[in-house]
Amino acid sequence: FSTNSTVPGPSGWSCRPQGNVCKTSRTMLGLCRSSLIPSVGLRRHALSAQRLFNSTPKLKDGASATSTSLTSKIVSFPKNNPFTFQLLVATGKTAAADIMVQIVVEKKKLSEIDWRRNGIFVAFGFAYLGGFQYWIMVTKYRQWFPTMDRFAKLSFAEK
Predict the structure, then answer these.
(1) d(Cα 130, Cα 84) in Å, to the nearest integer?
(2) Digit-coded pLDDT (tens) for 107-146
(3) Do residues 69 and 76 make contact, with C-beta atoms less than 8 angstroms apart?
(4) CA quadruple 39, 44, 49, 54: dihedral positive or negative?
(5) Which of 12, 53, 147, 150 is the most buried (most CB within 10 A)?
(6) What is the pLDDT of residues 44-62, one digit of tens each?
(7) Measured distance CA(129)–CA(134) in Å, rounded
(8) How far is 93 from 20, CA to CA, in rounded Å?
């Protein structure tokens, strides 16, 4: 590709690669909609993300900061512990939603929040949304739909 060439993409999308950046007339998530350019763009974005998350900041004396290892542990927690992460997200989301409804819709002050009601929502979020739905949508769906993982890994164009 020369830097001035235009790569036609599907549905009228056109890409003009310029150096390390793909300039497009219309983009989706900053990536060209061409069968030739996205793999390069995705690889470039993946390398940028890898450098961002795997780089170790140096202190003035040249020592490495330990915050990067903590950051990498936090970032990798959902992948390494999907069930626990689902429980935390569902519980926190449900509790926050009830608090928001009590404050915004019911016009209660923070001191007037019904914590017993919120506790019921916390239990519901933990048991049903975090536990039961994870079990049915991950465990049982894998049994009922054995090609689920393969299908989920396909790109939108391949689906």
Answers:
(1) 9
(2) 999 999 999 999 999 999 999 999 999 999 999 999 999 9
(3) no
(4) positive
(5) 53
(6) 444 545 554 555 555 555 5
(7) 7
(8) 40
Q: What are phi and psi of 138, to 5 degrees?
A: -105, -55
Residue where the block lists tokens 């150096």: 19
Element spanning 17, H or E: strand 14-18
Mean pLDDT for all residues in the chain = 75
Task: Give DSSP secondary structure letters for 84-101.
Answer: HHHHHHHHHHHHHHHHHI
Give the C-alpha separation, 153 to 151, whole Å.
Answer: 5
Sign of the CA dihedral with 90 first, then 92, 95, and 99 last: negative
Q: Classify 21 as helix, strand or coil.
A: strand
> What token pair was written down for 57?
């900041």
